[in-house]
Automatic annotation (TrEMBL):
Name recorded for this polypeptide: glucan endo-1,3-beta-D-glucosidase
Stretch forming the signal peptide: 1-30
GO molecular function, one term: glucan endo-1,3-beta-D-glucosidase activity
Species name: Sorghum bicolor
Alphabetical list of InterPro entries matching this protein: GH, Glyco_hydro_17, Glyco_hydro_17_plant, X8
Membrane topology, record value: Lipid-anchor; GPI-anchor
UniProtKB keywords: Cell membrane, Disulfide bond, Glycoprotein, Glycosidase, GPI-anchor, Hydrolase, Lipoprotein, Membrane, Plant defense, Signal
GO BP, sorted A to Z: carbohydrate metabolic process; defense response
EC number: 3.2.1.39
Lineage: Eukaryota, Viridiplantae, Streptophyta, Embryophyta, Tracheophyta
Gene3D superfamilies listed in its UniProt record: 1.20.58.1040, Glycosidases
Gene Ontology terms: cellular component: plasma membrane; plasmodesma; side of membrane
Reactions accelerated catalytically: Hydrolysis of (1->3)-beta-D-glucosidic linkages in (1->3)-beta-D-glucans
All residue ranges annotated as the X8 domain in the record: 392-479
Family the entry assigns: Belongs to the glycosyl hydrolase 17 family.
Length: 484
């Protein structure tokens, strides 16, 4: 249909201000439904949305961060709370913003309309309309956390309903309410047509959620990471298929309905579509609240490198700019939020957790990516330096030295795990000298990590530890390596 080509043409003619050009053409053609320039977020000529997470101690100010995220071509932004500094920094930008209610607030918001009104009055109302809030997400992957099953799961939808009323009471009508769920809300996702929600949540939580989303015209927000699906099944899934560049021979045909898949993300999204359909809500819209690929990780975290991260995100942006939908929903507009703006140094877990960003905290880019998906050429990428081929060790990081109390507590923890984990740093042991906290900490962190890595142990220690490829062994003191 004409609007798509005219939109592209306008962008090309007025290349200096492609975004404005496309907005202009949208206004002219009035019906914008098929406009390719509409991008994944249905917000005019805008690129992928981006998650602005702040689990770090070294990030730039909110206003600088807003400049950085706009420089990526991001078309929307999502934050993990209702941080007033960030919402103020976004005022007047026109950027659609998604904000989040913390999981811990859900029970009280569910049980009290007054609490919901207070939450809206304190966190949201002061920023509207200067800041363009688009989505209010009630909780983050609540159904993945079994520790809050009793206290919170069944409160999610009542909290959403109370917030919905509170928004109305404030005359706020444009904000859609949702909640983000991880892929583990499904008990089956392969083949996609077999997608089904877990039995423990399907009737009590998901059915009322879908009823709410359907009735309010909102979205099912899913955090969908082909990286994790691929890294857990590397023998069965090709890397190129996960990176949106599978050959024709790697297409997957769903035996349940004959739909043809060219990439892993589509498979995951259609599993959610099938699961919703199984509960009678096959028309609820889908949004991807998080996706992405890590640019680095620990030894053994295959595929976490700059080359793959850039490839995934560039291909995703280019693909979504054309609103392809999925095989089960061709042409559907799916808002997508990339994870994430920054590498966040305080995120616990494996090394890859601290390598999702497009930017380092100093504002340098980790790699080039244009989230509008319109850039067609980039400088060459570094080779895929898979971290599992080189030996690695876990040592005390440079930031840690300042806090001896914290280091001592972390060493005590590491040494209490397993038996004899820290024998070598005891008096008489090969690594006792030099008898200094820093040296002992590196030994203890490494001994712990090498022993428990396979069982999920991480080189983190509240941000005190880092991995290195430089062997810290000295003299007769040998540090085990990841390849031992
Ligand atoms: C979903 O919402 C639409 C529009 O309001 C309505 O017609 C339909 O019956 C709803 N679906 C279900 C399963 O309730
Ligand atoms: C920013 O930090 C990264 C990672 O530490 C580093 O490689 C890069 O050189 C830094 N850039 C500047 C301009 O300091
Ligand atoms: C040092 O670490 C301890 C324990 O983690 C913490 O309570 C304390 O606030 C830290 N001190 C400084 C100066 O950061």
């Amino acid at each position: 249909m004409a609007p798509s080509s005219s939109c592209h043409a306008a962008a090309v003619l007025l290349l200096a201000v492609a975004t404005l050009a496309c907005h202009f053409s949208v206004l002219v053609v009035a019906t914008d439904v098929e406009c390719h320039c509409h991008g994944a977020n249905g917000n005019g000529c805008r690129g992928l949305g981006i998650n602005y997470g702040t689990v770090a101690d070294d990030l730039p100010s909110a206003s600088r961060s807003v400049q950085l995220l706009r420089a990526t071509g991001a078309g929307a932004v999502k934050i993990y709370d209702a941080n007033a500094d960030i919402l103020r920094a976004l005022a007047g930008t026109g950027m659609p913003v998604s904000i989040m209610v913390p999981n811990s607030a859900i029970p009280s918001l569910a049980s009290s309309r007054a609490a919901a009104e207070d939450w809206v009055a304190a966190n949201l109302a002061p920023h509207i309309p200067a800041t363009r809030v688009a989505y209010l997400l009630v909780g983050n992957e609540v159904l993945s956390n079994r520790a809050i099953a009793g206290s919170t799961w069944r409160s999610v939808v009542p909290a959403m309903a109370n917030l919905h009323r509170a928004l109305r009471a404030h005359g706020i009508r444009k904000v859609k309410i949702g909640t983000t769920l991880a892929m583990d809300a499904l008990s089956a996702s392969y083949p996609p047509s077999a997608g089904a929600f877990r039995d423990d949540i399907a009737e009590d939580v998901v059915r009322p959620l879908l009823r709410f989303l359907n009735a309010t015209g909102s979205y099912y927000f899913v955090d969908a990471y082909p990286y994790f699906a691929w890294s857990g099944n590397r023998n069965a899934i090709s890397l190129d298929y996960a990176l949106f560049q599978g050959a024709a021979s790697s297409r997957y045909v769903d035996p349940g309905n004959g739909l043809v898949y060219t990439n892993l993300l589509d498979q995951m999204l259609d599993a959610v579509v099938a699961a919703m359909g199984r509960l009678g809500y096959g028309d609820v819209k889908l949004a991807v609240s998080e996706t992405g690929w890590p640019s680095g990780g620990d030894a053994g975290e295959a595929g976490a490198n700059v080359r793959n991260a850039a490839t995934y995100n560039r291909n995703l942006a280019a693909r979504m700019s054309k609103n392809p939908g999925t095989p089960a929903r061709p042409g559907a507009k799916v808002p997508v939020f990339l994870f994430s703006l920054y590498n966040e140094d305080q995120k616990p877990g494996a090394g890859s957790e601290r390598h999702w960003g497009l930017y380092y905290p100093n504002g340098s880019r980790v790699y080039e990516v244009d989230l509008t998906g319109r850039r067609s050429s980039y400088p060459p990428l570094p080779p895929a330096d898979d971290t599992d081929s080189a030996p690695a060790w876990c040592v005390l990081g440079s930031k840690a030295a300042a806090n001896e109390t914290a280091v001592a507590a972390a060493v005590a923890y590491a040494c209490q795990q397993g038996s004899g984990t820290c024998a070598a740093i005891q008096p008489g042991g090969a690594c006792h000298e030099p008898d200094m906290m820093d040296a002992h900490a590196s030994y203890a962190f490494n001994a712990y990590w090498q022993q428990f890595r396979g069982a999920g142990g991480t080189c983190f220690f509240d941000g005190l530890a880092v991995t290195t490829t430089k062997d810290p062994s000295h003299g007769s003191c040998k540090f085990a390596s990841s390849l031992d």
